[in-house]
Amino acid sequence: MEVSKLLPLLGLLGYVIYWFYGMVEVYWLKPKRLEKILREQGFKGNPYRLLRGDQHENDKLLKETLYKPIQIGDNIIKRMMPDVYKTLQTHGKNSFMWIGRYPRVTLTDPTLVKEVLTKNVTFQKSYHDLDPLIEINKIN
């Protein structure tokens, strides 16, 4: 009789452990593995931060640039893409930044860009622009 009462609890505990591991895998282990692979390939960037990535800094940079008036001779890249500009200035030409739990790679070497554009089967475009959690955080 006591075993039959423990089975549902053990099943629930097993499900909670399975769910928790899935969340840890998706939101911590996989991004850290991607970061390690990118660093081994010679890319530089900020370390992964849980859930938001670099989004908080990128939002602040964008707000700062929008409040400053623009002059005729100003560099338009600093104004339109301040996050990419800052990443290129701090980490070099081949770098990455985090959009939620996804790394966004920036390439400026023409041979690498040509390789990525010609091998569209190997380098497929990801159709999820942002993590859903980032969209929720941006609304609040």
Write the layout of secondary structure elements.
Layout: H1 2-40, E1 44-45, H2 55-67, H3 76-80, H4 82-91, E2 95-99, E3 102-106, H5 110-118, H6 132-139
Parallel strand pairs: 1-2
Antiparallel strand pairs: 2-3
Distance between the termini: 50 Å
User: How many DSSP helices?
Assistant: 6
The SS-based structural class is mainly alpha
Strand order of the largest sheet: 1-2-3
* Rg calc: 21 Å
On the 0 to 100 scale, the average pLDDT is: 85
Sequence stretches where pLDDT stays below 50 over 5 or more residues: none
**Count of separate structural domains:** 1
User: How many extended strands?
Assistant: 3
Strand content: 5-15%
Measured as a percent range, the helix fraction is 55-70%
Q: What order do the helices and strands follow? A: HEHHHEEHH
Q: What can be said about the biggest beta sheet? A: 3 strands, mixed
Shape: elongated
Keywords: Heme, Iron, Membrane, Metal-binding, Monooxygenase, Oxidoreductase, Transmembrane, Transmembrane helix
GO molecular function, one term: heme binding
Transmembrane segments: 6-29
Main location: membrane
Word description of this protein:
- The protein has 140 residues and is mainly α.
- The chain has one domain (2-139).
- It has six helices and three strands; from the N terminus they run H-E-H-H-H-E-E-H-H.
- The protein has a three-stranded mixed sheet, with helices on both faces.
- A hairpin with a 2-residue loop joins strand 2 and strand 3.
- The longest helix has 39 residues, at 2-40.
- The model has no long low-confidence stretch (mean pLDDT 85).
